[in-house]
Every structure is written in structure tokens, then in C-alpha cells.
Amino acid sequence: MKELFVFIKKEFLQVFRDKQTLLMLFGLPIAQIVLFGFALSSEVKDSRIVVADYSKDVVTTQIISKISASKYFDIQQTLQSANELQTAFKKGTIKMAVIFPANFANDLQHTNKATIQVIADASDPNLATTITNYITQIINDYNTKSGIATGQPLQIIPEVQMLYNPELRGAPNFVPGVMALVLMLVCTMMTSVAIVKEKELGTMEILLVSPFKPIYIIIAKLTPNLLISVLNLFIILILSALFLDLQVKGSVLLLTFCSILFILTSLSIGLLLSINAQTQQAAMMASLMGMMLPTMLLTGFLFPIENMPIVMQWLANLVPSRWYFIIVKKVMLKGLGIGSVWKETLVLLGMCTMLFAISLKRFKIRLQ
Amino acid sequence: MKTLLFLLEKEFRQISRSKQMIPLLLIAPVIQLILLPLAANYTVKNISIAVVDNDHSTFSQKLINKITASGYFKLTGYTASYNESLTLVEQDKADLTLQIPMNFEKDLVRENAAKVFIAINAIEGTKANLGGAYLSSIISDFNSDIRTNWPANPATAEAPQVTVSSANWYNPFMNYNLYIVPAILVTLVTAMAAMQSAFNIVQEKENGTIEQINVTPIKKHIFILGKLIPFMVLAIFLFTIGLFISWLFYGIVPVGNMITLYGSLVVYLFAMLGMGLLISTYSSTQQQAMSLSFFFINIFNMLSGVFNSVDSMPKWAQTIVETFPPSHFIKIMRMVVLKGSGFSDVSYHLIAMFIIGMALNTWAILNYRKTTG
Questions:
Q1: Residue A158 is assigned to a structural domain of this protein
Q2: Which of A300, B71, B112, B116 is deepest in the core (most CB within 10 A)?
Q3: DSSP state, A307?
Q4: Residues of chain B contacting A303 with CB distance shorter than 8 Å
Q5: Looking at this predicted complex, what is its ipTM?
Q6: Predicted TM-score of the model (pTM)
Q7: Which of A165, A278, A298 is nearest residue B39 as measured by Cβ atoms?
Q8: How many angstroms away from the CA of B216 is the closest CA of chain A?
Q9: Residue B37 φ/ψ, nearest 5 degrees
């Protein structure tokens, strides 16, 4: 046992000596949580649009002033010709054009019906759908108001309420997501180089001829990373409470327990990579190029997993951060207890045990 | 010139010799490009809705039928009270709830107006936005339906009605792949170009072989070129494979011309390789290089508009994003691939990338001299 502590101490000394990496280890999660927490938002507002009013009457003026008063739109300039529209779209300076045809006022007066033409730049399909819907809502609102004025019957008035996150801030969704993403990648990356580095520098042989058991080597390599990650977790939680107004609603103890389990799982993935890689470069490329995008997409904080094809849903189930993300959302944002997260916790526990067992086994084979 | 050729030969041999690197450099990105767009599909459908129908009237039934028939919504179930439906939202079993109050039909007929209440789980903002918008437009559709079919409707003739006809240019079928595949390709090329060049130089430092090169008559800029050109070539190669795969699997053919696309790619790689070089001058071990590049690549991925709209960010964040080369190149890619924009349309982004690239490279070369000279 004493050997183990000596070894752990050596690993700590090594980690603390490399000031630059240490700075990155703490700076990275902090900077990213704060940056993403403030910068990311799903609210679409101030979309740049052009308005072409060929009718220029009372109604079009009323509707245009309604559009320009809404926070969703930012009217750029008035449009002169169709060619100009094409150029503006190609340059990406506008997202949508709203066109009132020349006979708009006439139609409205004589047939009681008139149509506004809306052209959206659908190269970003979601944005196009959202802003087309906003315009439609503004027009519907106008119809409703003028309908009430003229005594229209059967008026259904929807009252919409946004729960949990009325301002549609990005933080409540992104903080748990970024927590899962950053913790997982940092743990995996840092561990992935741990053993392969000794191999590459030739010091592994010295370790192998020493009386250390392989499990000691693994534990000693993992301990500093585990402690650093737990410290990081608390820093992230404190920062999001202080700056992003996201306190842990549920039990901090439960969240910490699940987080440690998740960190251990990520460390085990790194360990497995480290044992299989031949060079540090290969280990890093595997943990960065191989894992970064899949983790980002399959955690579920960018795109809902239930919308994905079945194959991708299966793949997502293999990603530990997917389960952790669910736990954090439930415990941190909604304040639920162990009763509603035991399933996810068990999955993490299973993954962790399996990965660690495989690593241990593969490590032994290498020794012979 | 001749020295450069020898150096290039050496670099290419080293890359091709490493058995683990080739699959990681080329095959991993290709698999990701094929699979990940499947995950990044944001067609909003299957929004689960819990309904509280306190009215149980013909109108309320019709409205619920219309909502479930739309294809966007999936009925989770009926609940007796508003609180019960909120529990469903809390457990993530429903994304939104619709409450039809008692006397809905009666109010509608007698008072000419009735309210319905919608509560949306807004933690996932985009879904909340789209879900709320869809539901409101279905309700307003329903409203005009019942109004037209209302026998005692004296006012219909007099009330003016403005309708919206919408067109979606450049992507009429709202195919999300057209939007996401080019951006994922950029992300993969970025990761390879910027990080590999950084790791590669630091590897020579860590193994001590850089000292040997420093004492040879090889000039610094020749050495740097020798390190950067192979990754430029590899990145262009990967990009070409990526374009081929986007055509093969997703049927994406760039509308614009290839010269604009590849011209912009070279300027982009110039900037990103400069960043890799800069990272390598600040790191003495591969681990340091890795943590630095991870920091930047992660920020680039999250903020450059690959998945999250830059326009939704606050102004200060948009200013920061302006200095990220990937945000410009992703815009160029989408403009050229989807809209067929030419050089003059993308000139702003090209110039921006070039200026950033010059700054990064100059900084890197100045710093490089200091540390080794």
C-alpha cells in the first residue's frame, strides 16, 4: 500500500510541475462554461429582413410598423428590384424578404382577401421556419385585432407560457450539456496520454520491472485526474450558480456521486485508449478526432435524441455523457431525487465497471 | 527549394509509415461524415403534447384531432388537471401542454371569444420555439376553419383577411442535411489541419530531434513550410473525399463553382495551419499542445455556427466569433454549396480569413524565432 501512495505522489508532482497543462485543465472548463453560458441562446431575434412595399397604403404601413416594432426583425432597407434580392441573399446580408404586391390594397378592399409574399433564405432551414412562423403570427395577430374591431365571431385566443426558461436562454440547456461534454473529453484526453507517454519515453519498462502491480500503476495514473476533475466540477457548479443563475435544485450529494461515477467512466475510456495506442499522437487523435464530434452530437443537448434514426439512438446509448446529461438535467434543473435517476446511474455504473475490467485485462496481456 | 523537397519527402514518409495514424486521419473523419448528419437532424416532429380537455365539447375534440393529425405532434395523453399535465412535462414525457378550459365552446359561441392555454417546456429553446409556433398556427388554422363553416356568421364577408404565402429559396424541401453536412465537413478538416500540424512540430521538440534540425543549414521558414505543406495537402485531400461522400450519401452537389470553394479552402487552411504553428510554439510537450488545441477547437465547434446560430448570440459574442476562421469558412461553404455565391459575394469572409491568417502566421514566426534562436 505504501508503494501506491509514493507512486500517486509522483504522479501528482508530475502534474503540478507542468504549469501550462494545469492552467489549461482548470481554465478550459471555466472559460467554456462562462462563454457558452452567456453566448449561446436559441432565441431567434433581430433577423435582418427587407420589405418591398409596392402597395404603400394604410394597411401595409400598419403591418410594416408592426413588423419593425417586433424584436424578432430588423428591417434593413427597402427593396428596389428582384435582382437586388438575389444578390442580398447570395451575400447572406438578409434572411428574408417580405413583399406586398402592388394590388394588395385593392384586393383587400374589394375581395376582402390579400396575400403577402414571404421569401425566406432556407439554406438554414430551422431559421427559415422560425422566422416565417413569426411573420405569420404577426399577420394573424393583425387579423385577430382587426377581426375583433369588426366583430368577428368565434375568436380563439391562445395564451402561450414558456415554462422553466421563459427568456429562452441557452444556459439551462447548454450548461448540463457542456458539463457532460467538457468533463468527458478532458478526462478521456488527459488519461489517454498517461500510459502511452511512459511507453513512448521508454520509462514504462522501468515500471514493469519494478515490483508494482499493474493495478497500482493504473490507480496511480487515474487519481490526479480524478481529483482535478472533481475540483473542476465544483468550480463549474459554483460558477453557474453565481453567474448564470443556475443553482443545483436537487441534492448536491447525489449530483456529486453521479458525477464521480461519470468521471470514472470517462477516465476508463481514456485508459483503454492509452493501453491500445502506440504513440501519444495516436492516442490524442483518437480521443479528439474520434470522440469530440460524436460526443457533442450524441449527448443530446444539441439535437434531441428521440428525433434520430434508430441506429443513431443505439449509438447514442453507448455514449456515457448521454446518460450523465439526463441526470444533470433532472437533478440540477428540475430538482428530482434518486428515484428518477437510478436507471441512468446504473447504466453509468455498468459502463464504468466494464471499461475498467477490459482495461485491466488488456494491460496484463501487454505485460507478458 | 531542393531542401524543401527533401523535407517534404521525409514528412510524407513519416506520415505514411505510422500504421495507426492513417486510419485516424482519413477513415475516422469519413465515418463521422457519413453517420453524424443522421444525428444532427433537426426536423421538428413528434413533439409530445399532453392535453387537458376540461370542456369535452365538439369543438375541443375537433381541435385536438386537428393537432394530432398535423404530423408534428404526438399525443402523450389526456390528464384531468393542469397540474397533472405539468407533472408529465416535468418527467420529460410531454414537451408541451394544451389546456382547453371549461365552457370553451360556450364562450366561443356566446361571447365570440375563448382562450386556450399552452405551456411549453422551454429548456430546449429551439424545440420550444418551433413547437409553440406550430401549435399557434394550427390553432389559427382551426379558427378560420370553424369560422367559414359557421352558419350564423354575418361578419365573414366584411372582415378583411390578410394571408401569408411563403417560399423557401435555395432549399425548398427544407432538407436539413444541406445545411449541416458542409459544416460538419469543415469541422473535420479543421480538427485535422490545425491539430496535426501543432502535434507534429511539438513531437520533434519532445523527442529532441528539433535540435538536430536546428543545427543543420535548413532555414527556419523552409522547416516550417516542410511541416505545413504536408498537412495542407492532406487537408485538401480529405476535403475532396468529403465532398465526394456528401454527394454519394446525401446527394449534395455544390451549386457554386469549385474554384471559389477550393480557393477559399486554401485561404482557410493558411489561417488554421498558422494557428497550429502558433500553438506549437507555445507548447513543449504534446500534452500541452493537445490541451491548447482542444480548448480552441471546442470553442470553434460550439460558437462558429455549426450547430448554433451565430445570429442568436449577443453582440459581444458575435464580435468574438468574427475572429474565428472557421465561422467565416462555414459561411462560405454554405453560401457556395447552397446558394452558388461567387468570389465577389464571399469576398468579405475571404479577406477576413486572410487577415486573421496573416496575423496568426506572423505571430507564430516571431514567437518561433524567439524560442529556438
A1: no
A2: A300
A3: G
A4: 39-42, 307
A5: 0.79
A6: 0.81
A7: A298
A8: 25
A9: -55, -25
